[in-house]
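Quick log. Single chain, no ligands specified.
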Amino acid sequence: MSFKDLKLIKPLLKAVEASGYASPTLVQQKGIPAILDRKDVIISAQTGTGKTATYALPILQQLFDRQDAPKRGKKIRALIISPTRELASQIKQNFKSYGQFSNLRAYTIFGGTSIEPQVDVLKKGIDILVATPGRLLDLHKQDFINLDYVENLVLDEADLMLALGFIDDVKKIERLCPENKQTLLLSATMPYKIEQLANGILKDPVRIDVTVTNSITKDISQTLYYVPKRRKIELCLHLLRNEIKGNVLIFRRTKFGVKKLEDRLAEKGYRVDSLHGDKNQSDRQTALNKFKNGYAKILIATDVAARGIDINELDNVLNFDMPNVAEIYIHRIGRTGRAGNIGNAYSMCSADERNYIKTIEALIDVQIPIIQDHPYPLDPKAKPPVHKKKGSRYKKGRKSAASKKKKKRWY
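-> predicted structure:
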């Protein structure tokens, strides 16, 4: 199947060709016709399957007929809600690329940056707005945004918006839009609360599920290292010196962990940068650009900060901390091994993370090869550390309070 078979108009076909796409992905084959038919749609698909183009192309086609409106007369007709600033920027760039042969104007707004430039652009008029929930509601409250003309509402990465606590904001935004709009919901996973959200705001939706649990593993070499938690940094350094070649994206669970590892690697002379929630947008974009351009060979990130980031030719992924949700493992390692390239996924697992491996292997239906020959092996019988409650009255070598009350009998 070709993009022409999907009944896209010539300016979009020209843009798709200029972007280097030869044929539509499975999610695009199923999703684009349904969206062009003005159906509400729920799409469940993993990272890297082409979800953004699935909704961007038909939305651009629907808006194309009135593209020649004066710039100041433009109203927001398509609204895309994104959970993170990085993903919002990526989506806007995709709309700009696919709409390059039209006069449609796309813009993005998010927090962490000055509000005045965003207000200036909104006053000039735009067709497509990509926004994070907080900044959108803030600007609407100040009467800088009018959502009365929205025809297409897209909720992208809905599961992440749930995880970040944005669902109530999303519901508010949906109510601010016209009732007769087309609503599209995209999510890598479909937890119960996302199903509830979809049932509450979508009308008789078309459901498209192209999630294949192990589809991203065929071009990725996976290896697993069992290691005591206290020795993970040493093992990380060992892998960087002896195993990992090329650039590497390292995942940590917390921003504190990201900062700690970044400092340690920098001390050892590595060209390293990081992405986490405490960095402002300018610093995050600078870090990403340094990594993409090869100035930094190592990028350390949390899952939230890295969501939606597209890095071409990523050689390696290292799971410093194992994710406690199996689907997140798929999202992480799926960032390498793309477009026919071979990628490598390294994982370090401590005693308290072993159950995560079981659920991951059950989901991907693959037993991850274990590398036992390394300097910091974990005792197979090692148990997770038990943390005693602070302030406990019962300490080793002391009698219990009850025993103290017993009086010695004299006969």
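The chain is about 40% helix and 15% strand.
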